Amino acid sequence: MDNLTLTEQCIIIGMCAAGTMICRFLPFIIFSRNSKLPNFIVYLGSVLPLSVFGMLLVYCLKDVDPSAPGHGAAEVIAITVTVLVHMYKRNMMLSIALGTIIYMIEVQFIFR
């Protein structure tokens, strides 16, 4: 963005903000409180969260080389902590945050 003028930068930021706001507000406009949600939307609401986490799990493990010594241990420990905390507390934010913190501590101080 170094070669853009201030006006161009403001236009780009404004367009990004408008696009984000449209994506956030449009479902509330289309599906009002009084209308029944279509079955397809209800289905997507039930399967997409698990699908997204499955995709994130595959993405996180794609570069792990299990044949290299010590590789994959930090990931396995962090995933195990995440699953156990989620099974115990049923709080997605807590389990993901704790698993991430454990992983960061491992790669910074333990598995260098």
Would you kindly provide a written description of the structure presented here, covering whatever features stand out?
The protein has 112 residues and is mainly alpha-helical. The protein folds into two domains: 35 residues; 72 residues, no CATH class. The two termini are 36 Å apart.
Shape: flat
Q: Provide the number of structural domains.
A: 2
Mean of residue pLDDT? 89
In total, the number of strands is 0
| Rg value | 21 Å
% residues in beta strands? under 5%
List the helices and strands in order: HHHH
Q: In whole angstroms, how far apart are the ends?
A: 36 Å
Largest sheet: none
Class inferred from helices and paired strands: mainly alpha
Helicity level: over 70%
Task: List unreliable stretches of 5+ residues.
Answer: none
Total number of helices:
4
Pfam families: AzlD (PF05437)
Organism: Succinivibrio faecicola
Protein name: Branched-chain amino acid transporter permease
Keywords: Membrane, Transmembrane, Transmembrane helix
